[in-house]
Design brief:
- By secondary structure, the protein is an alpha/beta fold.
- It has one domain: 3-Layer(aba) Sandwich (Uracil-DNA Glycosylase, subunit E).
- 43% of the residues lie in helices and 12% in strands.
- It has 10 helices and 6 strands, in the order H-H-H-E-E-H-H-E-H-E-H-H-E-E-H-H.
- Helix 2 packs antiparallel against helix 3.
- Bound molecules: uracil (URA).
- The site of uracil has 14 residues, from helix 5.
């Protein structure tokens, strides 16, 4: 037996059906996402991040936007967002891969064993996070099991990373390790090829800055025989910073 449909009733319902609600206020067209929260894609979340990042005029506002952001699944399994440390406005900015266990616990980047080695490497060229280095990561939430962040996890953080670079206005960026180097430079090459070379980086909003990738300090702890390579890269960084600082 067929089902009889009251066409007039269907027409009336369609006419009055509410338009989909937006989940949150938006600042520009790029962030208008007529989807329910749970069905947002990575690119939807990257748009939300871009909108939030562009709206942040200070580091404090940007850090608050990162902490409030719900677009990374990693947020559910870690202690807290790890945003940055050091001196905003310093000539040198270090961008690492993301928090490990100690960073997750303390809420600061590079404070575990690898971080202690990074501090020594920076000290060798007269720099420290207390005085003249700004430090952040390409991912703000610790991946469980200390795995590398996935491309999607990096993609949703990227607008925040770019905005942080614009607010920090560094003269030179060190990409510490393969994950930040390959992701920032969108490179097909690995860290062994990229390290010790200078590359031009531009944020989508046009801030330009050179990047020099180096071996990650955690890798150097595992392979101390490669420290001479890291040393050569640090010498290059010291020389380039002196030129860029004039
Ligand atoms: N390794 C990183 O790349 N970043 C941190 O913050 C800590 C360890």
């Amino acid at each position: 037996m067929g089902v009889s449909v009251d066409k007039a009733l269907v027409d009336a319902l369609l006419k009055t059906a509410p338009t989909p609600e937006r989940d949150e206020p938006t600042r520009d067209a790029a962030a208008v996402i007529p989807l329910r929260k749970a069905s947002r894609t990575v690119s939807d979340w990257a748009n939300v991040a871009r909108n939030e990042a562009r709206g942040a005029q200070t580091l404090e506002a940007l850090a608050a936007a990162i902490r409030a952001f719900d677009g990374s699944a990693l947020k559910a399994t870690c202690e807290q967002a790890v945003v940055c440390d050091g001196v905003l406005g310093a000539s040198l900015m270090v961008i690492g891969e993301g928090p490990g266990a100690e960073e997750d616990r303390r809420g600061l980047p590079f404070v575990g064993r690898a971080g202690q080695l990074l501090d020594k490497m920076l000290a060798a060229i007269g720099r420290s996070r207390a005085e003249n280095v700004f430090i952040t990561n390409v991912n703000y939430w610790r991946p469980g099991g200390n795995r590398n962040p996935e491309p999607d996890e990096l993609a949703v953080c990227r607008p925040f990373v770019d905005r942080m670079i614009e607010l920090a206005q560094p003269k030179l960026i060190i990409a510490a390790g393969g994950v930040p180097a390959v992701s920032l430079l969108a490179s097909k090459d690995g860290i062994m090829k990229l390290r010790g070379n200078e590359y031009a980086y531009s944020t989508p909003d046009g801030f330009k800055v050179p990047i020099i990738p180096i071996l990650h300090p955690a890798y150097l702890l595992r392979r101390p025989q490669d420290k001479s390579r890291a040393w050569r890269d640090l010498m290059l960084i010291e020389k380039r910073l002196a030129e860029l600082e004039g």
